[in-house]
Amino acid sequence: MRPLVLVAGVLLLAGCGGKGKSSDSSSGGALVGAGSTLVFPLVAKWIPDYAKTHGVAITYGPIGSGGGIRQLTNRAVDFGASDAPLTANEQSACKGCVEIPWALAGTAITYNVPGAPKHLRLTGPVIADMFLGKITSWNDAAIAKLNPGAKLSTIPVTPIFRRDSSGTTYTFTDFLSRVSPTWKRRLGTGTSVEFPTGAGGEGSSGVAAALSRARGAIGYLDAAYAIENGLSSAAVRNRAGNYVLPVRRAVSAAAATVTSVRPGKAVSIVDPPASAAAAYPISTFTYAVVPQKSAKANLLSPFLTYAIGPGQRFAAALQFAVLPPKILAADKATIAKLRTS
Questions:
Q1: How far apart are the C-alpha atoms of 51 and 28, rounded to whole Å?
Q2: How many angstroms separate the CA atoms of 98 and 116, rounded?
Q3: Rounded to whole angstroms, how far apart are CA atoms 27 and 338?
Q4: Is the pLDDT of residue 284 over 80?
Q5: Which of 143, 215, 279, 325 is the most exposed place for a label (fewest CB within 10 A)?
Q6: What residues have CB less than 8 Å from 50, skipping those under 6 apart?
Q7: Which residues have a Cβ under 8 Å from the Cβ of 161 and sit 6 or more positions away?
């Protein structure tokens, strides 16, 4: 995945110029975006396909959700991408920005423990205690109890976390805050938190690289990156008591719990109810974030329509799940309200 990140970074710098914003090209215009690394593998497929079919040049910088929101707020880019909902302060600062769910994926709990099963069973409270530094070795009784008969190592636990402001961190810490009172009290939920132990990596590719290098490491990573890098992923216990992997059907089961959608707003599917017996508990929508009024509305509207429509044909191979009909209907309603400023 790292070569893709490098290419996107070069394109963004070339397209933005000094102010970070590209000008329209004679072939049909240009758009610049930045943000989520989770959605980047999918955006990287959209860029050449959309240029071929619509003649619009799109550049995208996978700098993390927080960075994307900041750049959009400053109007240095035409659209942002985030896996976390806008906070009240971000919503106010962004001045009329709306969130459009355009992809759906799981956050994998990945690890590098020689000799361990490829899919260890873990619970939210155990994961929280590992990242809090309370569980310090892989043969701890709490892990062994969940995995009877498994060969567990005495290797120390090394948590790997996102150093940059990240929507994946938001999803991960949101899950831990829901299942661990200690985590909620000490660290809470956010795109950036003060992890008490471990090592940080920049972006999803940085976390994947750190996990690959460090024996005994555990981290949280977008499912596509975990698979691409050949990392082991835990089966995480959901509210129904089932241990579930971050596969597409399990992410879809979490998304199926959505009963209502407010167009332009975020939707949480983290830690879904026990009635969703097959759901993966660390699932999330990832969002395009755009101004409702923009000088590029005439380019943004068709691109977003493509992303939630024909562009979804690339999703399955990259471990993104199908967008539910209710989400698509809300997306179309939001896109229809975009206006030229």
A1: 9
A2: 44
A3: 23
A4: yes
A5: 325
A6: 56, 58, 303, 306, 311
A7: 131, 169, 195, 198, 199, 200, 201, 207, 219, 220
